[in-house]
Design goal:
Elements lengths: L12 E2 L4 E6 L5 E5 L2 H5 L3 H4 L10 H10 L9 E2 L4 E3 L2 E10 L2 E8 L2 H23 L3 H16 L3 E7 L5 E8 L10 E2 L6 H10 L1 E4 L7 E4 L21 H9 L4 E9 L2 E10 L7 H21 L1 H24 L3 H6 L2 H6 L5 E6 L2 E6 L4 H14 L4 E4 L2 H4 L7 H4 L1 E8 L4 E7 L4 E3 L9 E3 L5 E3 L10 E3 L8 H67 L6 H32 L5 E4 H15 L6 E3 L6 E4 L1 H17 L7 E8 H6 L13 E7 L32 H11 L4 E6 L3 E6 L2
Parallel strand pairs: 25-27
Antiparallel strand pairs: 1-12, 2-3, 2-7, 3-12, 4-6, 5-6, 6-7, 8-9, 8-14, 9-10, 11-13, 13-14, 15-16, 15-19, 17-18, 18-19, 20-23, 21-22, 24-26, 27-28, 28-30, 29-30
This protein binds adenosine-5'-diphosphate.
């Protein structure tokens, strides 16, 4: 690893293992050169300045360089085919272009190069074949380190992978047996600063054969008025002192680093370390570079493969999940049963399904209260349907209380209109990260406030716990959550459509039924009238001929026709109720109730119960004629179904807060309405099993002659009227104590 200070690539010194010449473009006049030309060739650099390259190299070579100028770019130094001989020395020559100049680097050829050339090629080919045959990512990277080590002969070869924040992890390692392992060690992002990273992403290979070697100055020392020379791509580029000290602390004297690129981004590095200075000939470096490119191209295939497997697994889970949801009626149940499914969907440890105020917990989660407050907070942050963070406590300090279960949060909003959410939680990772040093120690703040990077004093493994952070949410997990949302929305919408259709049909058949009942009862009345009239005629005209039994039977017949007529009347009224339009007007219920009571007192003169109205009844929007009927039915029942000596009736209402505090035992979900009216009596009461049946048409609990009789339609009609007002009616009762009928509009 190299970690230099900015500006890294503008340098006025080079490594000593070669000669660097800076030539004018395209004249090839010598502008600068490394001072070690004296050591290698015994020529004083100053004597060459301003001279043509021909002074140094023979004309044929210069011509060869001139010929290749068209192909030279500013990124990859290209090696001239021939070795250059100057005096008794033989050099590999690398040439590339920098801004406004040509850089020619001469590296002494090592005798092994020629010898080893064919075996290097063979080793690389063999390595590639082997690498092609492994499928598992970890094995692949492991093999990479082994093969690179074989080819280069370094003491230690590692593959680093960078995470999204730039911190590195040693993924694979091949090393000399007696060295400590660095496998799985993590390096902070600061170890390889951004600029170095950018260079790797472009330059692919960096070689420093001797970190201890004295660097060589360029002559002349100053670049004059021109901007400093860009040596980014010079093979001999000088080494930053930080990098030297850093590696020396690790006991490393030579490094070779090969970049691994995936998706045009620096994915990681192959890093080779050697304990003593080590020169690697150009051919081998080139082979490594090639191998690096091969590894890069296989990364997507081999290493990202595991990620792909995970995505596939999530996908299949997802489709299974969606299918099972679409089959059930109860969304909540489908989401939370069986519990692990919801968690596996995004690899979370806990989840909460919030449907309005109802919160269902799965796995390891904060408390319901904490979740309620949390959703309120997220609600304000929410841009679109998804909110996620891997460090919730840093955004929402209250989460410090439950960081152990929810340092990571993924929240999915199912519906904007209704408060439907699914939340997933991940615990604090407490990543016991084995940073290869203190990530903060590499940054020193100087007395004057300036910040410099200083190398590690030690390369001891130490642990840094990354607090208040969970494992990050992966893109595929977020996608899964979003897909779940569309599935739920789709299913819910489908269900809503179906409901609407059923409702429509019901409404139609209700209307049909109403008109049928109306027609039927209307038509029934006529023949009934006939039976009644003829019976009357019979009774009157033949009274003298009929004996008592005959008269009695005729009278019963007449009574039955009367009763049947009143039943038909009820039926008629009932069916008309379904069809009639409501005429809603503000209606003073207080006045209305008093009027009804007045009428009842007249018709029930034998009973005079005590009437209690604790506070004046409010004015509401309703159809006064119909609501009058409701009060009439309820109050007349209260008058009738009472056999106590001291009878009383209470008429009152509960406002919204009273409804909550009294805990009204309404069936199903109940949310407060402005008023709930009630009519209470201290009468005979109703058995629990009849509390619902009494609202059915013609349902009576008593013989006809008891309690003043009735058709058993009063409550049915009252219920229908209330429902047409969008309200509800229900009753609480205790046998022998009394009943309380509640209703809302
Ligand atoms: P009815 O014409 O028989 O009064 P309703 O539909 O009004 O018909 O009532 C149905 C039945 O419910 C009654 O027959 C009676 O048994 C019972 N009922 C209604 N109101 C009361 C009450 N306040 N106390 C006791 N029983 C009642």
């Amino acid at each position: 690893m190299s970690h230099n200070l900015e500006p890294i690539h503008f340098s006025d010194s080079i490594q000593p293992h070669g000669i660097l010449l800076v030539l004018s473009d395209p004249e090839l006049t010598l502008l600068f050169m490394s001072a070690n030309i004296q050591d290698y060739l015994g020529i004083a650099p100053h004597s060459l300045l301003g001279q043509s390259l021909n002074t140094l190299l023979d004309d044929q070579l210069v011509e060869a360089i001139r010929q290749s100028l068209g192909e030279i770019d500013s990124v990859t130094p290209i090696k001239l085919q021939e070795c250059i001989s100057v005096g008794e020395h033989s050099f590999d020559s690398l040439v590339h272009r920098t801004e406004g100049a040509i850089i020619l680097e001469l590296e002494p050829t090592s005798p092994q190069t020629e010898l080893g050339f064919f075996s290097v090629r063979a080793s690389v080919k063999r390595a590639m074949t082997k690498l092609r045959h492994v499928s598992r990512g970890s094995e692949f990277l492991q093999l990479v380190t082994q093969e690179v080590r074989k080819i280069t002969g370094f003491d230690r070869v590692m593959v680093y992978q960078f995470d999204q924040h730039g911190a590195g992890t040693v993924m694979a390692e091949a090393k000399q047996d007696d060295l400590p392992t660095y496998l799985r060690l993590h390096y902070p992002a600061t170890d390889i600063p951004e600029q170095v990273r950018a260079l790797y992403a472009r330059g692919l290979l960096r070689f420093i054969p001797d970190l201890t070697a004295q660097s060589i100055e360029l002559v002349p020392a100053s670049f004059g008025v021109k901007q400093p020379l860009d040596l980014s791509f010079a093979v001999l580029r000088g080494v930053d002192p930080c990098c030297v000290e850093y590696h020396q602390n690790m006991g490393v004297a030579a490094i070779l680093v090969i970049a691994l690129i995936n998706n045009q981004k620096l994915w990681g590095l192959i890093a080779c370390h050697h304990q003593t200075p080590k020169f690697v000939p150009y051919e081998i470096r080139e082979a490594c570079e090639l191998l690096g490119q091969f590894v890069s191209s296989e990364l997507a295939n081999k290493v990202n493969h595991e990620e792909l497997d995970y995505i596939v697994k999530l996908r299949s889970l997802q489709s299974e999940f969606v299918e099972s949801i679409s089959k059930v009626d109860n969304l909540k149940q489908a989401l939370v049963n069986p519990a692990p499914r919801l968690l596996d969907l995004v690899s979370a440890q806990g989840a909460a399904v919030c449907l309005e105020d109802e919160i269902t917990l799965v796995g390891i989660t904060p408390t319901t209260q904490e979740i309620r407050a949390l959703t309120q907070w997220v609600d304000k942050q929410l841009g679109d349907a998804l909110f996620h963070t891997d460090s919730l406590p840093k955004l929402y300090p209250e989460a410090l209380m439950f960081k152990d279960v929810a340092s990571g949060l993924l929240l999915l909003q199912i519906s904007k209109v209704r408060r439907y959410y699914i939340l997933w939680f991940r615990p604090e990772f407490l990543q016991t990260v084995n940073w290869a040093g203190d990530p903060n120690a590499s940054i020193t703040v100087e007395a004057d406030g300036s910040i410099t990077l200083s190398p590690r004093q030690s390369f001891e493994k130490w642990q840094e716990t990354v607090r208040l952070t969970s494992l990050p949410w992966k893109a595929c997990e977020l996608e899964n959550a979003l897909d779940l949302r569309s599935a739920i929305v789709g299913i819910v919408l489908n269900k809503a459509d179906e409901l609407a259709r059923i409702n429509q049909e019901l409404e139609r058949s209700n209307q049909e039924l109403d008109s049928f009942a109306y027609a039927a009862s209307h038509d029934l009345k006529e023949p009934l009238r006939g039976i009644h009239n003829y019976s009357m005629l019979l009774l009157r005209g033949y009274e003298s001929v009929l004996d008592d039994v005959g008269k009695n039977r005729l009278q019963t017949l007449i009574r039955l026709t009367r009763r049947m007529e009143s039943l038909i009347d009820v039926l008629l009224k009932f069916s008309r109720l379904g069809q009639a339009e409501l005429h809603l007007v503000p209606t003073d219920i207080n006045q209305l109730a008093h009027q009804v009571l007045e009428d009842l007192r007249v018709s029930h003169q034998n009973v005079q119960p005590d009437i209690r109205i604790p506070r004046p009844l409010p004015t509401v929007h309703c159809d006064p004629i119909l609501i009058n009927e409701v009060f009439m039915n309820l109050l007349s029942n209260a008058f009738k179904y009472n056999d106590k000596a001291e009878q009383w009736i209470e008429i009152g209402y509960l406002d919204a807060s009273e409804q909550l505090s009294k805990g009204l035992s309404q069936p199903d979900a109940y949310s407060p309405v402005p008023f709930v009216f009630y009519v209470q009596d201290n009468g005979i009461g109703i058995r629990a099993r009849h509390l619902e049946t009494i609202f059915r048409l013609f349902k009576r609990l008593h013989e006809q002659r008891l309690y003043g009789g009735g058709t058993g339609a009063g409550l049915t009609i009252a219920k229908k009227i209330i429902e047409r007002h969008g309200g509800r009616i229900w009753v609480e009762s205790t046998v022998g104590v009394g009943s309380r009928f509640y209703f809302t509009f």
